[in-house]
Design a protein that fits this description.
Blueprint (H helix, E strand, L loop, with lengths): L1 H50 L2 E6 L2 E9 L2 E10 L4 E6 L10 E5 L11 E6 L14 E12 L2 E13 L7
Antiparallel strand pairs: 1-2, 2-3, 3-4, 4-5, 6-7, 7-8
Amino acid sequence: MVAASLGGFVLAGILTSNLQIIRGGVRITQYAEMEAQVRRGLDYLGRDLREALELTWNGESDLTLTIPTGANTTAQVTYAWTAASQSFYRVAGASSAEVNGRFELVRGIPPLAGGAAGLTFARFDRDGAVATTDAKTKSILVNMTVARSAQTAAGSQRMISATLTLRNKPST
């Protein structure tokens, strides 16, 4: 009887430890997935911003870039975040409302407390002052709060910030 009770306590301890190890593994997987998506999203945006010839400011979470595509031709791409999909995405063309060809870069960017955007852009001129026009914009600051959660583990949340420069865009 004593051995059975002692065995039950040991088994309960082992099961609790295994559950904690599994939860830790889930959190690490979520964190790694989140980091990979953020890196990929910032890489795409950074590449297009470096090549951009023009920028159109559509709003704090929506901007359109004109990028060279070949021999004297250009194309427009739009980067945006929406509360509905809670994702940061890239889409060909000048409208973030376009669904065809939309490429999700980062999933899991919920709105902030009070309904504020989970991803915002800020624009600056070549001297680092806040730019008030598209023509004066020379760099973009990206702020996003990404989150991951699962039923078996506590979620991960992280604030990401990056400043990216438009290298091909002429200064005014």
